[in-house]
Amino acid sequence: MSQESEQRVVVVTGAGGGIGKAIALEMAADGARVVVNDLGTSVSGDGSDQSAAQAVVDEIKASGGDAVANTDSVADYRGATNIIATAMDTFGRLDAVVNNAGILRDRMFHKMDPDEWKAVIDVHLHGTFNVSRAAAPVFREQKSGAYVHMTSTSGLVGNRGQANYSAAKLGIAALSKSIALDMALFNVRSNCISPFAWSRMIGAIPTDTPEQQARVDKLKSMTPDKIAVMAVYLASQRAADVSGQIFAVRGNEIFLMSQSRPLRSMHRGEGWSPDSIASHAIPAFKNDFYDLEVSGEVFSWDPV
């Protein structure tokens, strides 16, 4: 247990299982008091089992920690305010928020139903905004706080059949940067983790081909506890000078991910036409084009 986090209070959304549960347990092991939020839904967001959050709370308490369950939905702003209120009413303070809640409704883009699009955006992107915004007045008033958001290489790099999830996760990366910029005045930090870990959500990845099965077999070796230690670090004062960054965690590897910046430029004094773009600009840029790769092709080596 670290002395600096002994009295800290952390909200972890989607903490009834998988990565979220691992983060909640690691936060408690590090001395923080934890609000364990979870609806207990399926991977697709259907159904509800409100005992999931309480089971994690019971596990934390059995290990000598302190935690409270919350079963509000992050997709609803009033629910998000209740999550933050649970921290304040129970523990009297809030030091960090980990936005982990998420669902999957994978479908190839040309077959994706608008409801499948909206459901994933509501939980991931809107949910991250809702909980972060609800916590902002507390952080602003006390002039301290940390946000840790879960993005994904599905958004940062790309994956097939996940237009809704990819859009939400890339949006979260941009939202995190905006929060970092806007809240820096109040000594509030915001960072992202792009996790590689075996969980219920990754368990929904198709295994119809040998290549897909091989990818899943690799992912199974990457357990959620590898992600949790990074979340604990970013939520603590150990990371006091770290904000606006995106980290990927893959087994025992940690990556600092790039953020969009100009690669090449061309100037044409007389301006451009479609023909001159085709004959001059694009040939000059083409060596720096990004391939149509999915994240599994970019991170192609075995996890270590």
From TrEMBL:
SMART domains: PKS_KR (SM00822). InterPro entries: KR_dom, NAD(P)-bd_dom_sf, Peroxisomal_Beta-Oxidation, Sc_DH/Rdtase_CS, SDR_fam. Pfam families: adh_short (PF00106). It comes from the Bacteria. Residues 8-204 form the Ketoreductase domain. Belongs to the short-chain dehydrogenases/reductases (SDR) family. This is SDR family NAD(P)-dependent oxidoreductase.
